[in-house]
């Protein structure tokens, strides 16, 4: 199971430039969280701070019971072993084949025999669908395969926390969908705590259990997926709907005169789009971090936009969910590991539309 991360009052500056200030959030153990924000709002800086590569000006990062910014060097080094990181471009060594790239952390940080290294590397390559490509160089494979090779390398030390920096960068929408499916399947398989930085709205709307948004040097909102997808907060609504109307401008934020001009012209921010069903695992299992569709809205008296939680086959998962849970439950109990309420999925023998395992060729 993954480790909970609690961030309290975190502030980071470079010289006189404040990147963000007083950021507080909790990444629940074993759940998938997404961090959004316009370009230049410090999302990658936040990831580097979480893993201890950058020290904040003030604040706390609790990884379990360890306050990471204040750890002695030796303890910081040990705590970093809890993390796996997938960089934007995969960050593979160009002179090494895929096998040696994935094996590198094991050879660098452990004393395992080569036979044990091989077993682990092949296991992780199989997990991300890259068996058969281990002898190829990074220059001989596609962008999607590079991402998955980087993901395999991030997994070889069995991390309890996985940081993923813009997995969609450089990928077309189809390959991004395949990679999203791989991430969801991995979360179900290894139970790690995931934090994904992305600009991809489809990823943000369908993959995570929680969403956060950075803007104007602060964390505007962080919470369950349904909370943000039903939010009337102007910047959240603008970003998640990819609209021009709102506080975000071409160069970071709009000034007061621009916002006043928009208001005078009576621009309508538009209706909130339906909240889609959450992406399910390839085999239909329930991830522990998932919640019943519509559960947050119901618990907080929020009416979701019309058409929410309806899949491509026209099934309303608020209505279908109880039958799904019953169909998946072993005799005498709920599905193993199911969070109370669970998540949308498919009935056995009826694959969810558009959800497939990771393809080997992208």
TrEMBL record:
User: What Gene3D superfamilies does the record point to?
Assistant: P-loop containing nucleotide triphosphate hydrolases
For bias type Basic and acidic residues, the affected ranges are 253-270
Q: Which SMART domains match?
A: AAA
Keyword Manganese listed? no
| Domain ABC transporter positions | 5-241
- Example GO molecular function: ATP hydrolysis activity
Domain of life the protein comes from? Bacteria
The annotated region (Disordered) lies at 253-292, 328-362
Q: What keywords sit in the KW lines? A: ATP-binding, Nucleotide-binding, Transport
Q: What is this protein called?
A: Phospholipid/cholesterol/gamma-HCH transport system ATP-binding protein
Q: Which organism is it from?
A: Actinomadura livida
